[in-house]
Amino acid sequence: MNENNQQWLASIKQELETNILGFWMKHTIDEQNGGFYGYISRNLTVNNEAGKSLVLNTRILWTFASAYRMTGNESYLKIAERAYHYVIEHFVDQEYGGLYWMVDAAGNPAETKKQVYGQAFAIYALSEYHRATGDDAALQQAISLFHTLERYSYDEEYKGYFEALTREWLETDDNSLSEKDLNEKKSMNTHLHIMEGYTNLYRIWKSDELHAKLKELIEITIKHIINPVNAHFILFFDEKWNGRSEHISFGHDIEGSWLLVEAAEVLGDEALLADAKAISIRMAEATLNEGVDEDGGLLNEAGPGGLIDTHKDWWPQAEAVVGFYNAYQMTGDEKYREAAVRSWQFIENFIVDKQFGEWHWSVTRNGSPSENVQKVSPWKCPYHNGRACFEMIERLSGTSTSH
Question: Fewest beta carbons within 10 Å, which of 142, 188, 203, 341?
């Protein structure tokens, strides 16, 4: 390993252990109600009454299970176990199957609809917990959830997966993931994370049915979700895969570029992997050319007329480090390695909260923290930044255990 990589690796390990994992272990444990706080502000003010989201809790589970799998550090295992038991005890719908979208501060069901995005993260997290611990119950829960999604969410006519269903797994008009999202039947985001969840499950459960479904998800992503003209994701669709949005999300583009290749690698289909790598490189190229600012930070969104959101949120920066480095590994082109390095430097200079710890939600284009004060919230979690560190530690040290 060259000296530059050694220095970079050291800074990533330091950030991961002390500022990311250390923060979540120190500040987020809810001793009163169990599990983890649902909301903490930038200045570490806890809202004890805040609801707790499926996304936050499954992402904590995934992150600390992965941290334990990679390091063997028992303190990470304790957090993973806490997250696992909280998810199973409070989010699992014992009557209808699947997991609730939100519980209240005390752990009672609050939003009971079955958001497929959330189910996908549960599969991702339960699979990782099994990978880390060998816990058979977690594997069986992930497999059961896979069958539940295939039974209720899969579109037999046009393929792909519907966005949301009621608690009873019936059709609903309430599809939106958040107030930012369009109320459409299908989305890039949900399909990206089903693919991610199925990829992790396939590592530990080599089922023929799962193989077929993961293969189909990769093909759907390439055929329908990536715009063949500009190599950006189309974000929303009707059930027939007609595009419903012209927005470009640079963070999702660069995240998807490496998750797509990872899925194809784990699947083991050489022809499909070649297709995935080709489009992935195009996605990374488009993101680099259009989305990276002069300071190395990744801008949020563009539309047909140009940039529409010039803030730089925390999670796209994390994904840019991995996505650009992945493009470098596939092509050997130094411009991608340089882009990954600059992304990391931008994170260190602007995104890391040097006063209160962890990362700011976002910064404005000039680098000052944005008005969003969320430090821990339904969507602010240790998964994007933690995962970027895990990925880069493996890639820079050549000890990948991903596949």
Answer: 203
